[in-house]
Design brief:
binds guanosine-5'-triphosphate; two-stranded antiparallel ribbon; 284 residues; GTPase_MTG1; Rossmann fold; alpha/beta; elongated; 8-stranded mixed beta sheet
Amino acid sequence: MTIQWYPGHIAKAERQLKEQLKLVDVVLEVRDARIPLTTHHPQVQEWVGSKERVLVINRVDTIPKLVENEWRTWFEERGETPYFTNAQQGDGVRAVAQAAKSVSDRVNRRRRDRGMRPRPVRAVVIGFPNVGKSALINRLLGRRVVESARRPGVTRQLRWVKISKELELLDAPGVIPTKLDDPQGAVKLAICDDIGDAAYENLLVAAELVELICFMDDSFPGMGAAQTLKSRYDPDPFASSGEQYIHAIAASRYQGDVERAARQLLNDFRKGLLGAIALELPPI
Ligand SMILES: Nc1nc2c(ncn2[C@@H]2O[C@H](COP(=O)(O)OP(=O)(O)OP(=O)(O)O)[C@@H](O)[C@H]2O)c(=O)[nH]1
């Protein structure tokens, strides 16, 4: 599996992200519910440092409810509170705003203790490409966009928008550069389109999707995704390798155009047409 990244972009993304993080009190980290482990970058903890972090697991509509519950328990057992959202529709976004507000209360209590005046808490939304950061920002803003201002000393034009009396949000999300050292993760990012500036082959990515779906069906009976594949494209995904499966779809529907079959399968998955499918489960 070859996925090609452009290192210059990654270095630039990392620089920009650190610049954004310097300005804020609280970080809203967005992950993709289909792959909440892969859309976590191991350096986030180090970058966030002592600031507060709110963990948002977005695209909750794309995974089965049972899997959502498993993740909730898994995160809570690790002392984390996951906020599950559908940023496209707005579900769960109010709870995220509430969590950011309670950070504001804590920050201002500390400021008061040090004899400082309270001020709105400043937040930034960060996450891998395409996980729904902009959708979340727009939902948080709703129709209450009030003012925006430029902060000096920042090369890029960063604007603050007021979410409420207590909360200001940087209007540009911070893009987390992709991890380079995990080929399995890279494939999942490609499947979910969370990969940013990378080039990859659709056939190989789609073939991995088919194999992952069969694997997930085995590990989490009841998801039913392999059955959906079968009823949608006809061949049985369990009967062949992922690559053979794409070839079979191409032969039966696209005059042998394998690239087209691969793209179709990936698009159907990304649009949710194959139903709710998780590609990761909490590790045991
Ligand atoms: N089904 C579903 N789609 C979502 C959700 N959140 C965002 N999307 C869709 O996912 C796509 C990407 O969302 P964006 O908000 O642009 O993602 P982003 O992280 O800002 O993307 P970049 O700017 O590329 O880093 C859009 O088509 C959104 O409509 C969600 O919770 N569920």
